[in-house]
Design the sequence.
């Protein structure tokens, strides 16, 4: 934000950066080789709905789009849920081997919102992983920063910070990881995780 | 491909705010020129009080700027809370910061039942966001989010810095009024040896006092005007950030309504913090009269609601 914008109190909504998502499949390979975490095939997009008809229409279109692509490949339909903060989550489920299809779906949601002028409403995209001991892990993509961070929830709203830092080290070469740890906000109870 | 944007800027507000700041700058320049002119006329013997006022005023402004977070927190009796102590509040702020791509501020809760919120700190790295228990008790999560987005917009617009710079002029003018007044009272006889010099001293101090009073009055009104524009700008940015102007509007309505119903004792305690508050703690009549509006740090409820209704309409357009 420029000096003049600050002086005159005009914050511009931040536009998201979408293309980085396509680096996820190769990062998943690295992650599995180093830590044994494999994708569950589930991913979600989280955004802040805007009041009014325009956004409701876009949201409906996006769901129809995903359902259509799901019907073609024979996967589960998209789930929609609202969290306690008023954010909407669209969950797309694929087979665990189909991470590329999953990323394509997630990207379709994101670009549909951006094309309709609602890019600033995107909060994060989340792809779920699990290892053999059934430990849960999510890679969270922050649209506005263009960076990823790991989120490993433990029962009772605790985080496995050691594991998260380990994952960050592993993926440093494949993805742009968020360096500012204060931005690794927890997404407790995120759908699809 | 350029994505189309629904977030149209409000040119009128930008122009009015720019004009206000320009006028403030103009008054400042005129004030400096007048003081230099007066000092030159008396061979700078009275320049000393001007020098003192600038040093003291500058010190006060810089001090309050650097310690704004600590001063405001202790005035409000607030204490910082960790994510474990207030998970919902932290969750809301986390999400707003991620949406707006801003560093997360420290978060404090004030135990008072007066429903309000403020954000302060000299820049976004040192920002503190404070909400009162009364606010959290009265508002739904979505309304609370609207209020927090409004406060985070103040942080993004660096309103503490802008208002400190803007008030600098008024602080100096205010000090000069006081100094020249005391100068009149005590400095009259035998302060400087020469008799003819002494005769000149009285009118000079009077002139400095008169100029300072005029500057103080004008800059006071301009600062309040600027403050009202910054509030409108923060409402606007906050509403666009969450995409829910109506939630912010309903929060405003609830907060203003319950403030008017609270006994005056609490209000007096809260007065010094008014400029940073989400909604000022003033009685309803004071906020509604035309003259009260001129001196108010915040725009009237009707103005704020009207702006939010307009944004809501713009966002809903297909």
Sequence:
């Amino acid at each position: 934000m420029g000096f003049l914008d600050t002086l005159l109190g005009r914050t511009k909504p931040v536009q998201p950066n979408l293309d980085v998502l396509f680096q996820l499949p190769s990062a998943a390979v690295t992650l599995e080789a180093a830590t044994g975490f494999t994708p569950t095939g589930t991913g979600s997009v989280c955004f802040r709905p805007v009041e009014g008809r325009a956004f409701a229409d876009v949201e409906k279109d996006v769901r129809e789009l995903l359902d259509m692509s799901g019907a073609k490949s024979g996967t589960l339909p998209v789930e929609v849920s609202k969290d306690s903060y008023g954010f909407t989550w669209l969950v797309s489920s694929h087979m665990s081997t189909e991470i590329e299809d999953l990323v394509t779906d997630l990207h379709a949601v994101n670009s549909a919102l951006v094309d309709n002028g609602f890019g600033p409403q995107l909060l994060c995209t989340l792809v779920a992983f699990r290892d053999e001991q059934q430990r849960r892990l999510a890679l969270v993509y922050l649209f506005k920063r263009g960076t990823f961070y790991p989120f490993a929830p433990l029962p009772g709203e605790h985080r496995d910070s050691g594991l998260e830092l380990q994952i960050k080290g592993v993926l440093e070469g494949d993805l742009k990881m968020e360096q500012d740890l204060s931005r690794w906000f927890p997404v407790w109870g995120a759908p699809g995780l | 491909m350029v994505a189309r944007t629904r977030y149209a800027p409000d040119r009128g507000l930008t122009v009015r705010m720019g004009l206000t700041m320009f006028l403030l700058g103009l008054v400042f320049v005129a004030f400096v020129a007048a003081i230099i002119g007066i000092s030159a006329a008396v061979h700078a013997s009275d320049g000393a009080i001007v020098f003192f006022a600038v040093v003291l005023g500058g010190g006060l402004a810089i001090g309050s700027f650097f310690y704004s977070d600590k001063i405001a927190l202790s005035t409000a009796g607030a204490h910082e809370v960790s994510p474990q102590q207030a998970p919902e509040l932290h969750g809301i702020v986390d999400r707003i910061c991620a949406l707006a791509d801003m560093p997360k501020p420290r978060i404090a809760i004030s135990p008072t039942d007066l429903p309000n919120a403020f954000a302060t700190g000299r820049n976004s790295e040192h920002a503190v966001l404070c909400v009162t228990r009364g606010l959290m008790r009265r508002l739904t999560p979505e309304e609370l989010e609207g209020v927090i987005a409004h406060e985070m917009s103040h942080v993004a617009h660096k309103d503490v810095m802008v208002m400190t710079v803007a008030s600098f002029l008024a602080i100096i003018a205010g000090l000069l009024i006081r100094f020249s007044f005391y100068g009149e009272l005590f400095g009259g006889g035998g302060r400087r040896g020469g008799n003819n010099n002494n005769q000149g001293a009285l009118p000079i101090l009077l002139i400095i006092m008169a100029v300072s009073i005029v500057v103080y009055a004008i800059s006071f009104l301009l600062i309040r005007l600027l403050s009202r524009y910054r509030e409108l700008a923060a409402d606007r940015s906050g509403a666009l950030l969450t995409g829910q102007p109506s939630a912010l509007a309903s929060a405003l309505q609830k907060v203003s309504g319950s403030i008017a119903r609270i006994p005056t004792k609490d209000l007096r305690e809260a007065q010094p913090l008014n400029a940073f508050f989400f909604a000022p703690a003033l009685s309803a009549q004071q906020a509604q009269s035309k003259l009260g509006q001129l001196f108010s740090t915040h725009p009237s409820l009707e103005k704020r609601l009207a702006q939010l209704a307009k944004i809501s309409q713009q966002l809903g357009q297909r």
